[in-house]
Amino acid sequence: MPPTHRTDAPRPTTVALIGAGLAGAACARALADAGFAVQIFDKSRGVGGRMATRRTEWTGPDGIAIPARFDHGAPAFEARSEAFIQFVEAAEREGLLARWVPVIDRDGQTGQATAPQWVPTPDAPSLCRSLLKDLPVKTGCTVDALRREPDGWVLESAGVLVAQGVDRVVVAIPPAQAAALLASHRPDWAERARAVEMVPCWTMMAVTDAPAADLPAWDLAEPAADPIGLIVRSDARPGRTRVPGRAHWVVHASDTWSRAHLEDPPADVLACLQDALAQKLGPPLAWHHAAVHRWRYAHAPAEATDAAVPELCDWDPARGLGACGDALGGAGVEGAWRSGRALADRLIEQHRQTRPA
User: Fold this and answer.
1) What per-residue confidence (pLDDT) applies to 107?
2) Beta-strand relationship, 103-106 and 220-221
3) Nearest-CA neighbor of 127 among 334, 323, 347, 345?
4) How far apart are CA 158 and CA 322, in angstroms?
5) Between 313 and which of 94, 138, 231, 324 could a Cys-Cys bridge form, CB atoms 3.0 to 4.6 Å apart?
6) How do residues 33-58 score in pLDDT, each as one tens digit?
7) Please, what are the domains in the chain?
8) Overall pTM surpassing 0.85 (yes/no)
C-alpha cells in the first residue's frame, strides 16, 4: 500500500508586531523571511517611526504652491557593528541608502566627518518601507489594550478588536508607551521601561534664500550654545534636490533646551529657533517657510548604549511576548536595528526547538 502523504501544511506561527519604526521593521522582515505570519500595527499615518519625512508646501512670490520635503527625524546615521555594516551596504546596493561624508562645523571649526554617514533615499522612511513592502501593515492604529486569552493574544485599539488568536506579540515602540502595554504581563519590563527617560527634541523645518556665494561651507553644524543642537543643510544631503536660490534647513534644538521648553507654545519655539539660525548664518535671509515639530520621544539617552540589556531585547517564551527598540539595543538607528533583529532571532530559535519533527 503506497504511503499516505499529508497535503495540508501546518499553520504558520502568527506574530502581531506593534510599531513600524526600524526596530519593528527589521524584526518583522526577519520573521517573515523565516516563515512567520506577521501583522504590523502603527499609530502613525505611515511607517518609519523617527526615520521620518515631512511633506509640505509653501507659496512662492508668484502665488504658486511649491512642494518641499524635510527629513525631520534622524538626519543620518553611522554603522559600526559588522552585521549592521553588511545590512547598510546591501541597502546601498539596492539604492535604499546613500553614503554621505558631510562637512561639519563645530562651533566655528570646520572639517570633514571622520566616518561616513548613511542617508535613506529618496526619503527617510524608505528603508522601513522596503523592509515591510510585502507585509500587512495597519497604520493609524494605536494598540492600547493587550490581553492573553486561552486561544492567543488579543489586541484592541480604542475599544475595537484589531487582532485575536495571535501566537506571539512584539512591542517595538518607545519605552513610555511600551510600559502601558507590558505592565499587566511583565511588570518588571514595564518598570525598566518607565525608568528610561527618552530625550525630547523640538525640530524646525525651514526654507530661506540661499546664503551668498553658496555659504556656509558646511553641511552640518553643531553650535556650542543653546538653543540649537544641530543644523542640517537638508538639501545638501544625497538624493535631495537643491533648488537654485533657496536653502532647506532642518534645525534640531539641543537636548537640554528641548527638555526645558517641551511644553512651550509652538509659535514661541519657532521664533526662538528662527532667531538662532539667523544668527548662525550671518547676513539676514528671507524666510519662505518655517514650522516646528515636537518629538516627545526623539531618541534614547546616550547611556542606553552602555545600559542595553545583554540580549539586546526582551523575550518571554512562555507568554510569547517580546519587546525591542533602541532603548534596549543601544541608542541610535543601529541600536534599533540590532534590537529588532536580536528579537527575531530569539523567536526563530524557539520555533526551531519546539516545532514537531
Assistant:
1) 83
2) parallel
3) 334
4) 22
5) 324
6) 999 999 999 999 999 999 999 999 88
7) 1-51+125-195+308-357 (3.50.50.60), 54-124+199-299 (3.90.660.10)
8) yes
d(CA 90, CA 54): 26
3-state secondary structure of 129: helix
CB 16 within 8 A of CB 170: yes
Which of the 8 DSSP states describes residue 234? Answer: G
With cell 538624493, the residue in question is 239
> Which pLDDT does position 213 carry in this prediction?
73
Whose CA is closest to 233, among 277, 268, 294?
277
| Among 258, 206, 198, residue whose Cα is nearest residue 227 | 258
Distance (Å, whole) CA 279 – CA 17: 45
pLDDT on residue 307: 55
* Rounded Cα gap, residues 163 and 141, in angstroms: 11
User: Cell for 3?
Assistant: 504511503
Find the distance separating the first CA and the last CA of the chain, reported in whole Å: 24
- As a whole number of angstroms, the distance between CA 231 and CA 249 comes to 7
Q: Sign of the C-alpha dihedral, residues 273, 122, 324, 134?
A: positive
Residue 105 phi, psi dihedral angles, 5° rounding: -105, 115
Closest CA to 308 of 3, 15, 23: 23
List of the chain residues with pLDDT < 50: 1-7, 357
**Residue written as grid cell 534645525:** 251
| Cell, residue 126 | 524608505
